[in-house]
Amino acid sequence: MSDIRQLTLPIDEATIRTLNAGDFVELTGEIVLTAGMPTCGRILEYMKDDKPLPIDIAGGTLFHLGSYSQDTPNGFEVLYINPTTSTRFNALMPPIIRHYGLRMVGGKGGLDHASVEAMKEIGCVYLSFLGGGSPLLSDAIKEVKTVAWRDFGSHYRLVKLRVENLGPLVVGIDAKGNSTFETLSAQAEKRMPDILHDLEEARAKTSPGGH
Fold first, then answer.
1. How far apart are the first and last CA of the chain?
2. Dihedral angle at the C-alpha atoms of 58, 104, 43, 157, nearest 10 degrees?
3. pTM (2 d.p.)
4. CA dihedral sign of residues 162, 168, 172, 178
5. Burial class of residue 3 (count of CB atoms within 10 Å of its CB; 0-12, 13-18, 19+)
6. Could you give the 3-state DSSP secondary structure of residue 19?
7. Mind listing the pLDDT tens digit for each residue in 3-56?
8. Domain 4-178: which CATH number of 3.30.420.10, 3.40.30.10, 3.20.130.10, 3.20.20.70
9. Which among 8, 197, 12, 195 is positioned nearest to 103, based on CA atoms?
10. Where are the domains of the chain?
């Protein structure tokens, strides 16, 4: 698709602010991911104690991606990645976004207003990953660069991967605060009276004495 923007990581704030909600992108470079709330909780502890993370995410990415992984004699192998629901992380993400100056976060389902405000301040976008698109996403994995916090289960470890043409991904929330999730929600609310009316008519026709 010619309308997919090809982005190379790391990426600067100026480029991030040119992205608009609804844009399609593919990523090439290094990404950091975890599916674990305990992992983000530990990141907050490191922030509080002013300790450096074992994988530097400053000015980078933190994606809510689960992974099926295994330890092998040759190292940690990621067999597939798949998005997890970002709204579980709502309470944790604003301070992490601000402290590390994240440029990209993402997963599925979006983030709340507090996170959007942090993203606007810092220059960060939320990328929406295709649910059920694991084979396509996993094909983009080229190398496992680093794995941290191995005391966690593989899903919850902090993992850095090198990817090529990861996507297509949708800019769900841009650095201006525009959100495809809010747009879709507003559209749904606007349509709801008509949907309810149609349902009532359909029920009336199928109920005893209906026409």
1. 49
2. -110
3. 0.84
4. positive
5. exposed
6. coil
7. 899 999 999 999 999 999 989 999 999 999 999 999 999 999 999 999 999 999
8. 3.20.130.10
9. 12
10. 4-178, 180-211
